[in-house]
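The records we work with from here on pair a chain with its fold. Each token is a code from a learned vocabulary of local backbone shapes. A record is reproduced here so that you can trace the correspondence yourselves:

_____
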Amino acid sequence: MSPRMLVGAGTLLLFLFALGTSASAQTKVISEGDSFSYFKGTAEPPTGWNTVAFDDSSWDSGPTPFGYGDLTNGTVLSDMMNGYLTVYIRRKFTIADASSVGGLNLRMRYDDGFVAYINGTEVVRKNVAGTPGTPPAFNAPGTDHETNATFEDTVICGSTANLVSGENVLAIQGHNVSLTSSDFTLFPVLETISDLCPTNMQCAPSPPANPVNITVRWTKPTPTFAFSSIQLLRNGTPVTGTVAAGATSFLDRQVPPGTYTYQLVTEGCGVACASPPTCTGTIGPGGGENFRRGDTDGSGAVNITDAVNVLNALFQGAAFPACPDTADTDDTGDVSITDAVYLLNALFQGGLQPPLPGIDTCGSDPTADELGPCTYTAC
């Protein structure tokens, strides 16, 4: 067994955090159960069916969701199976000021595929073959896909959405995988997003005992959203390491004692966040105690008894060293029999010497791990 020693309850941490200053408010413009005009795809729909100007007064209307098989509410299309592959739906919505909208979030539950349009422009296509921008034929099948249990989010950039102040239209053509398919679902919800800034930014020093790292967390506009660019600053300077475009956290490792302000500078859909959020984290004095790696008994020297201490702790029920990092002689972040072997090879077989701070000098651990707090008085 290779136990990873648990952190204790004590802490030298001063923990501060500030919430982000920006907010990406989302407002539903089309909600669950709203009524749509719809056309059964027994033939191609009329030209311009997906534009604002189209007159859909002759179409049927009904509430979402649309489909059959899995549905017990909404608009049940009982004649779709063995009758037609596609359904065309449309609903108008109003935007007071298009310039205030950073983007749209189209939330969909669907089975099997669909193509969505805003004001006649294709904005999302899922599980339907063909060239984006070219509407699929009314008798084109979708790709086999089970109804997702929760809504699937897709952010549509404001520049792509072609929104106007006033009346707009969301139009969707849903495609079933085959005429004999046992089910079909088309269930849209549409939200406006005021901006695409990250929110709820928090800084949490870690681990709880002997903190030497700061974990920075934030919330994206939607769970699947990826920023077009992202950079994390610590006291105005970029942190070491790459922050992934779709990430929601970053571990800033081996932070010296002090108080730090982090700022997340992002672009969403190519537009810079006007008010990048910030948070503050503090590593208190005592984080990253100095020790000699391998000196498990705290004698100030490293010898065979230190390797024996590791073995006794692992297999004889003896107490673990007061500074767990001294026993992690190979610096892997846990303590196992390989640490004792590593130390013995270094002492007697000319093997690799233990990593920094080494056996002859005192220093802090350069590698973040979850070992417990270090008590070492031999420096």
Summary: The two ends are 31 Å apart (CA to CA).
